[in-house]
Design brief:
The chain has about 80 residues and is mainly α. The chain has one domain. The chain is about 60% helix and about 10% strand. The protein contains two helices and four strands; from the N terminus they run αββββα. Strand 2 and strand 3 form a beta hairpin. Helix 1 packs antiparallel against helix 2. It comes from Prochlorococcus marinus (strain MIT 9313). This is Lipopolysaccharide assembly protein A domain-containing protein. Keywords: Membrane, Transmembrane, Transmembrane helix.
Amino acid sequence: MLLRLRLLTTSLVSGGLLLVVLCLGAQNLSDRHSLRLGDAKSAELPTGFLVGMSIVAGVISGGSTAALLLPKPRA
């Protein structure tokens, strides 16, 4: 149980730190694009920010999946 909690906390903290660094670094980027999601369009965001958000989402989801799929320790 402690290993799962530690792994989940580590993935959330590292994803949060990556997000902070990404937000600080993406402020001065001028090349901006928007995503089309069906009929809707997202706000214009820098390409590096969009790629970085997918990396942050992958770090958080991968870490939490690994924490949830750890086998239970035998008694």
